Amino acid sequence: MLNIRQVRKVFNAGTVNEKIALQEINLTMAPGDFITVIGSNGAGKSTLMNIISGGYLPDQGTIEIDGKNVTKLAEHQRAAFIGRVFQDPMAGTAPNMTIEENLAIAYARGHRRKLALGVNAKKRKIFQEQLALLDQGLENRLKTKVGFLSGGQRQALSLLMATFTQPKILLLDEHTAALDPKRAQLIVDLTVKIVEKNKLTTLMVTHNMEQALTMGNRLLMMHEGRIILDLPQEKKQQMTTKDLLQAFEQARGGEAFAEDRFILA
Ligand SMILES: Nc1ncnc2c1ncn2[C@@H]1O[C@H](COP(=O)(O)OP(=O)(O)OP(=O)(O)O)[C@@H](O)[C@H]1O
Predict the structure, then answer these.
(1) Would you tell me the crossing angle of helices 181-198 and 151-163 to the nearest 10 degrees?
(2) Ligand 1: residue whose CA is nearest its atom 1
(3) How much distance in Å is there from the Cα of 76 to the middle of ligand 1?
(4) Which residue, 64, 115, 147, 197, has fewest beta-carbon neighbours within 10 Å?
(5) What is the pLDDT of residues 98-125, one digit of tens each?
């Protein structure tokens, strides 16, 4: 579903601020793969997400999604087949628009010929059915402006909007990090439910080691622009957070994680 070959991304090339954010990255994801990505600060996790979404174009290498070479496609040209949820609950939704207006935008995004953004009875019914899956009572609040929702409810709505039209790839960029533990757990549960129900190919960045171990079927560790560990389900399901820290320290040649903002549980 995703095939990244020899991708390199350098910021401020040729200046004193030159930073190699991604170094010859290779990554293949099979349809339905759910990969968690963990790594030290500045390891290149967000850059990898942006390279996939089209936010940044690589300096070198190729990106294929569902067999199509998208390497040179701009972000808006990939939007129809990529869903993304950001860390900031404010980022994925428009606060001054109602829940149904936000959903209408997400609904139109996935259709080749842009449909009218209006909401008719048929669409409203679809929206209500989908919102009911979130278990937040939002199906009865279609006319509520999104700015009035809690952070957790906005993140649940962002998740629904990102997955509404069956994206080829779902990108989750620390999407529970800004929430309190109870709301974060709710979004974790919802993520697993939506990803499994729709069999979505998913890449999720997290600083929470427990999440990285328990969610998904594969775990990647990044460091200094490289993927330094790639653990399959059989390996990661036997590991504790302590084992994971040890494995990462080994992969980094014994260097400790003291400076990083890892959450162990
Ligand atoms: N737009 C940019 N301009 C210049 N440098 C950048 C830019 N974006 C990222 N970088 C640099 O590239 C490197 C990788 O950054 P990136 O944000 O991908 O790391 P990350 O793994 O997501 O880190 P964190 O966990 O701290 O968010 C860092 O050194 C960062 O400072």
Answers:
(1) 10
(2) 11
(3) 22
(4) 197
(5) 999 999 988 887 665 555 667 788 889 9
